[in-house]
């Protein structure tokens, strides 16, 4: 291996490492990925994605391709053992981000789309069949790697561990996992129908059967996902083929479907107490793991990746100080923590609903999936109780342009103004590299209530809403300070 110093070294080419390497490469950085296996993992673990991830995929121009290879969800039901709904959530066609709020994909296909797109980045090098053996905290960071029996070293300025639940990088930075004590064994079955069936193909079922909790998720095209909780004393060996077909009998049978795999997983709920040590970071399952009930494990990793990518880029390009990197854990940890708790709540809701059939009363205090993701707890200015500040900003089409608002701002900070700006404000915006859009779109009605100026972060979260010039100046100075911008 040459003595070349890469801007970024990424360990792990799972869905999160692949997305992060694409984001950083699309920004023009040189990236090397170390992956111990070869090719896309054949197992379909993650199945659900959401509008915020589609926004990220759209930055890579692959969102439409992902949508056309996925299934839209119309409804999610919590049901009794006979599939009679206790409660139903209707899923809108799209949300304010302009994408479906929830979408079911087939993981090997999704990863293939990301990897195929990655071939276009000239400064991205993927080293498969290569394992990270050791990290030396030198400057640049030295990575000792092994490809078959050959040992070599490579160098990078920043190292990012996307190396999954047993992360080597997490152990290297001496981060510990905080365990929320929600380990459960479930058998996960992926099947493919071989004939057209009449089972509802756009409805997810969380079956709160007191004899065994079950989940049915209609995957894309002919893929079907089933999950069954193991009962006390059961283990993988109890799930013979005969038993598996018995479990699947309400939906599919041997004559109309094939089983791809049936594997017992132990779900965990945990989060790392430390996400960074100097120039080394952890992202995705390396930093957090959660039960699958919210379908948000991979998505939480992709949110980490989007959050970290623009920050590292600004620091490497000398446009922001190193302090900006401190905000990665400050912003992402509370969000990931909330998501884990929410996934736990859905698991608990299923359990509690199941008591009803045993004659016990249960009135859920939570709708489960209707909850909105929480505000940023750092990295905004103003009062987030307006429900807008610190949340993902909307996306809208621009008149007379093929670009939408996301495409217009790209990776820049943005200012949306209802009216012409003063020369003084113009100068500050130029100094801070903030892109301006003077527009009043129907989608902005709520945002512009009592405000004339909206500041948007590169990851398209709303930073602030201001009414007057002096309020805007204050917000700009706060933005410069919070993101350690160098002018
Ligand atoms: C049954 C099930 C259902 C799920 N459903 C959903 C869902 O619907 N939606 C959702 O968002 N999430 C879901 N998840 C979670 C999701 O699968 C994970 O969160 C996601 O795969 C994590 O991606 P990752 O890239 O962080 O890690 P991984 O996919 O684990 O990738 C880590 C990579 O790092 C490599 N690696 C590790 N160590 C080294 C080393 N030393 N050197 C080189 N390479 C290394 C590994 O080979 C691997 O390729 C589900 C999980 C399960 C088990």
Write structural notes for this entry.
- The protein contains eleven helices and 25 strands.
- The protein is α+β, with helices and mostly antiparallel strands and 487 residues long.
- Among the domains are: 197 residues, FAD/NAD(P)-binding domain (3-Layer(bba) Sandwich); 99 residues, Glutaredoxin (3-Layer(aba) Sandwich), CATH 3.40.30.
- The strands form five sheets. Strands 1, 2, 8, 9, 10, 11, 19 and 20 form an eight-stranded mixed beta sheet that branches.
- The model has no long low-confidence stretch (mean pLDDT 94).
- The structure holds flavin-adenine dinucleotide.
- The site of flavin-adenine dinucleotide has 32 residues, from α1, β9 and α7.
Strand-helix topology:
Blueprint: E1 5-11, H1 15-26, E2 31-34, E3 48-50, H2 51-59, H3 63-68, E4 71-72, E5 75-79, E6 85-90, E7 102-104, H4 107-118, E8 124-127, E9 130-136, E10 141-147, E11 150-161, H5 168-172, E12 177-179, E13 184-193, E14 203-209, E15 212-218, E16 223-229, H6 241-248, E17 257-267, E18 270-272, E19 276-277, E20 280-282, E21 288-289, H7 297-316, H8 326-356, H9 405-409, E22 413-417, H10 423-431, E23 434-438, E24 453-456, E25 462-466, H11 469-482
Parallel strand pairs: 1-2, 1-11, 2-8, 5-14, 11-20, 22-23
Antiparallel strand pairs: 3-7, 4-7, 5-6, 9-10, 10-11, 12-18, 13-16, 13-17, 14-15, 15-16, 18-21, 19-20, 22-24, 24-25
The structure holds flavin-adenine dinucleotide.
Flavin-adenine dinucleotide binds next to helix 1, strand 9 and helix 7.
Unreliable spans are none
The first-to-last residue Cα distance is 37 Å
Shape: globular
CATH superfamily of the domain at 5-69 and 107-180 and 270-327: FAD/NAD(P)-binding domain
Level of helix content? 25-40%
Mean pLDDT: 94
Largest β-sheet summary: 8 strands, mixed
Query: How many strands in all?
Result: 25
Q: So how many helices? A: 11
Assign the CATH topology of the domain at 5-69 and 107-180 and 270-327: FAD/NAD(P)-binding domain
The quaternary organization reads as: single chain
Portion in strands:
25-35%
Structural class of the secondary structure composition?
Answer: alpha+beta
Give the radius of gyration. Answer: 24 Å
CATH class descriptor name of the domain at 5-69 and 107-180 and 270-327: Alpha Beta
* Gross CATH architecture of the domain at 5-69 and 107-180 and 270-327: 3-Layer(bba) Sandwich
> Which cofactors or ions or other ligands sit in this model?
flavin-adenine dinucleotide
């Amino acid at each position: 291996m040459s003595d070349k110093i890469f801007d970024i070294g990424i360990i792990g080419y799972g869905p999160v490492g692949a997305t992060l390497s694409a984001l950083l490469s699309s920004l023009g950085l040189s990236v090397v990925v170390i992956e111990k296996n070869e090719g896309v993992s054949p197992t379909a673990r993650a199945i659900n994605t959401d509008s915020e991830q589609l926004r990220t995929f759209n930055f890579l121009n692959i969102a439409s391709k992902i949508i056309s290879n996925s299934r839209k969800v119309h409804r999610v039901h919590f049901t009794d053992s006979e599939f009679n709904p206790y409660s139903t959530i209707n899923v809108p066609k799209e949300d304010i981000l302009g994408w479906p709020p929830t979408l079911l994909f087939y993981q090997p296909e999704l990863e293939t789309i990301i990897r195929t797109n990655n071939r276009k980045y000239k400064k991205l090098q993927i080293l498969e069949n290569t394992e990270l053996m050791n990290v030396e905290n030198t400057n640049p960071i030295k990575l000792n790697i092994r490809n078959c029996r050959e040992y070599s070293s490579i160098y990078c300025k920043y190292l990012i561990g996307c190396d999954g639940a047993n992360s080597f990088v997490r152990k290297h930075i001496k981060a510990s996992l905080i365990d929320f004590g929600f380990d459960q064994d479930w058998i996960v079955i992926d099947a493919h129908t071989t004939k057209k069936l009449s089972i509802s193909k756009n409805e997810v079922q969380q079956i709160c059967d007191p004899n065994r909790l079950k989940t049915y998720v209609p995957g894309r095209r002919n893929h079907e996902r089933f999950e069954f909780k193991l009962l006390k004393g059961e283990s993988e060996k109890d799930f013979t083929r005969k038993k598996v077909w018995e479990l699947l009998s309400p939906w599919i049978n041997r004559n109309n479907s094939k089983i791809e795999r049936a594997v017992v997983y132990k779900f965990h709920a945990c989060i790392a107490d430390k996400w960074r040590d100097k120039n080394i970071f952890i992202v995705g399952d390396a930093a957090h793991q959660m039960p699958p009930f919210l379908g948000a494990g991979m998505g939480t990793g992709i949110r980490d990746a989007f959050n970290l990518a623009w920050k590292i880029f600004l620091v490497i390009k000398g446009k922001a100080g190193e302090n900006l990197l401190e905000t990665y854990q400050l912003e992402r940890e509370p969000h990931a923590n909330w998501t884990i708790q929410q996934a736990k709540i859905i698991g608990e809701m299923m359990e509690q609903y199941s008591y009803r059939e045993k004659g016990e009363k249960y009135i859920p205090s939570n709708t489960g999936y209707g909850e909105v993701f929480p505000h940023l707890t750092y990295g905004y200015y103003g009062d987030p109780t307006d429900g807008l500040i610190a949340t993902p900003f909307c996306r809208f089409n621009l008149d007379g342009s093929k670009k939408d608002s996301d495409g217009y701002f790209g990776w820049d900070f943005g200012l949306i103004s209802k009216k012409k700006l003063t020369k003084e404000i113009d100068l500050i915006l130029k100094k801070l590299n903030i892109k301006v859009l003077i527009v009043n779109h129907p989608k902005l009605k709520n945002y512009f209530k009592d405000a004339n100026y909206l500041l948007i972060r590169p990851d398209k979260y709303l930073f602030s809403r201001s009414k007057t010039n002096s309020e805007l100046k204050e917000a700009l100075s706060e933005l410069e300070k919070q993101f350690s911008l160098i002018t």
